[in-house]
Specification:
mainly alpha; Tetracycline Repressor, domain 2; homotetramer; 9 helices; 208 residues; DNA-binding
Chain lengths: 208, 208, 208, 208
DNA sequence: AATGAATGAGCATTCATTCAT
DNA sequence: CATGAATGAATGCTCATTCAT
């Protein structure tokens, strides 16, 4: 239908603008200029700016759900190995995000709501943490503790991602400070999880 | 100094408000009401609203850096095992975030910039993905593929965090679609990393 | 003619909407929804929204004029008493308004242009004035000054109507404050007019 | 207080503009231009445009109430004649409206909400009705039925005011057509009320 | 230093009117 | 004739920032 096409066109423009400049730094004026439509036309398709945003994400969510059920059909659950099953899941999740960088940015809350200079302030901390982990990994490789064939950058991001997500989940959602006990438990679990895949079997330094 | 105390008081109020309602939904009016100061006073301590925000994060960053160097001193690098070293790093990162839920929220871009109803639209996708992984893990445990002693919720968040971070890093920062090859490579690395810590040694089903 | 019928249908809908929600709170969208016609169709029958409104009143005015000339024919001016003549005039005026509550509201400027909550603010003053007059009349009846057979509510409205109309005519149409002399003259005339019909012959209180 | 003075200044400007161009044809821009203040300043004193309007009327109402209680004190209720009492009431009501032509216009719903050209369409009907009554009165005077000393224009407005108010009260406030019975009853009461004050004792025409 | 009244650029949204089909 | 998608000028309101006291 032609009406749907127009709506889609607006959504594509908005998605790019939201991802690039953030929700609050994208004005209706920007969207209609980009979409080459008149001001009033925008409001024929969306009730508010907010409506557009929510529609965008709702759409994305539906797309993801559809992808999931499709994915299920591809697998022969009786014969697949656990490793392949895991691999499959990971691949499909990545593919989903890889497919649309703009929605990826929006969903991952990058560039959402903050002007790029302020965004930078936030990213710096993440980057620094990642760099620290990278350094640690390199050190571990040099000392023959960590498998030398791993991709340092990727692994650092992987580990940082876990830690940030767990912080968010366990410390950020509430409002009160978390207890030391929580931290210890989480620390232990994270270590258990990463150790086997990350480290070589440990050889205590030969003393002489 | 008294001046510093006043500045600190403003920052504490702002931090809480930013974390709770987002940068754009926190007005100067809110901050000065909360901090019990006059409008003009605010501008004696900060040049703009943006300045306050950046100062807040800069502070946080310095705090983190200080924590890091402190941490280094605690360790006797000659005798510590690699596992303890890793554990140490993880613990300190978690502690840092656990210590200040408001800054945690801000840094992790939660509640930043979006009214809570729109924020919900975003969180849904993350939650759904996490739930899916949780289901997979439970299935794996039932089928004796996954170690039964793991914490399902924690592990799901850990895995999801990795995947989201990698998506962000490899697909979100640029603007062009990513190649299939990238996805395959990342998939493989993620699988390699998690497999040993997550799965029991695989026993192919006995055929009869 | 079919065209006239359609035009009439639009006018009926608009009349009801204007009377109920006011001119400015009635949108073209409301009218066409109610009249079940398309947006463009409206503009085939009326040049503007204003045109519709003016047409509506023009129509009403013509109707009234027609009613007047008709009325004249009913009377035998040679034999009718002055009282019947007056009664006749009053009856026909009332009938005219009684016949179409929507046009009545519009002509009497009720519900024109203001949202109902603001309209309320205006009505309150009128209501309070009327209530005050009602109280006075009741008092007069109790003291045997006013004929006990009158309809209090009706009479209060009648008197208030006169006063408001005279205020409007003598004080509202111009822009400058009116002189005290005007007020005195009008007061005297109003008193003269209402006194004979409203009051019993006055009996000065017996002194002892 | 200075703050009150500023608020008062805005209200005075708005009152004049509302009365002259109507609520909907008075823009915030007009008000602030007239009051020589900035856009934002307006919103320091009033929450909305509507708020200003309601405040204006609320003020007027309070003024009226204060006037009423004051008025009560002036009267010696034990000695005043009913006629003087009535005269007093009428005078004070008129004085109230005479005092502020702008608020008079607003309260009487003139110039409220409609551009002056449309307002004209409405006024025409009122004017025509008044003219008709004037003609009747002159006729009555010529025929020696009506007292020759009355003020024709004033009396016509007085009678029209009553009729319009009664129409409004009995036919306009509801939405359904009124019954013929209502009209007859009102007609009779109006005639009874005006007849004694308006007409000379009727002399049936001498027949020969 | 502290205050808070004043400022005005900026923005989302509305709605009468037009015009291609 | 009828339609309804498109238009864009107009408007109420927000809010970061300034500045006189």
């Amino acid at each position: 239908m032609d009406k749907e096409k127009r709506k889609h066109q607006i959504m594509e423009c908005a998605k790019r603008l939201f991802a690039t400049h953030g929700y609050y730094n994208t004005q209706i004026s920007d969207i209609i200029r980009e979409a080459k439509i008149a001001r009033g036309t925008f409001y024929r398709y969306f009730n508010h700016k907010k409506d557009l945003f929510v529609t965008l994400l709702e759409n994305y969510y539906q797309q993801w759900k559809a992808g999931i059920s499709l994915e299920a059909q591809e697998l022969d659950l009786r014969t697949i190995t656990p490793e392949d099953y895991f691999r499959h899941r990971v691949r499909n999740s990545l593919l989903f995000f890889a497919n649309d960088p703009y929605l990826c940015k929006i969903t991952l809350r990058m560039g959402l709501g903050l002007p790029s200079d302020m965004e930078g302030s936030i990213q710096r901390l993440e980057t620094k943490i990642t760099e620290l982990i990278e350094k640690d990994i390199k050190l571990g490789i040099n000392n023959n503790h960590i498998r030398p064939d791993i991709d340092v950058e990727l692994t650092a991001n992987l580990v940082v991602g876990s830690i940030l997500r767990l912080s968010y989940f366990y410390f950020g959602l509430g409002e009160e400070k978390s207890s030391r006990a929580d931290v210890e438990r989480i620390t232990e679990k994270v270590t258990e999880m990463f150790f086997p895949g990350l480290f070589l079997k440990y050889q205590p330094p030969a003393t002489n």
